[in-house]
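Quick illustration, no need to memorize.
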Amino acid sequence: MKILIASNIHWWNAEAAYACTISNLLQDAGHTVFVLTCPGSLNEKRLKENKLNLVTHIDLNSNNPFRLFKAYRNLKKFLLEENIELINPHRSEGFPLFVFAIRALRLLNPGNHLPIIRTRGTTRLLRQNWLNHKMLKECTDFLITPGKIVSERLLNSSNILSDKIKTIYYPITCPKLPLQPKQDFRTEFKISEKAKVL
């Protein structure tokens, strides 16, 4: 499957690391993964270190309407040329462009249902505006959250069906720690048994 993951984040934080890890896991499973990110960013540097296919020519973070229109056209062109089969945006910046691009592509080819699976990593409450709710409820096939608290907040702040929300926990490998007996600090620092230790 050909997947586009949008990680248009300038810095390297938990959200960027989550998108990178998911991208690596999908790539290791045999999928062709493209990661859309900000050019010259710390995120781009880390994604390159992970040998992921990067897309940096589509600027989803601009506030300039002309640049956003250019980004929309570049996005549509990229989706068509690469035959992308699934889109996974991780940020709200640029999310409407994905929705509009997919709607336009569906008009060109009504039989091609290109799914959007939106990942929401923030625990902040959902913005209370009708467009945001409409896009999440009607234009998103599924929502991914990295934890239960994010899922609960999303359900509590919107009328999204719980069946549409899936939790994929951040995959971490815990190192095995050597089990050691509890240190006796009272003996080590010559503290009497009667003394209160905070």
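Residues 89 and 95 are 7 Å apart (CA to CA).
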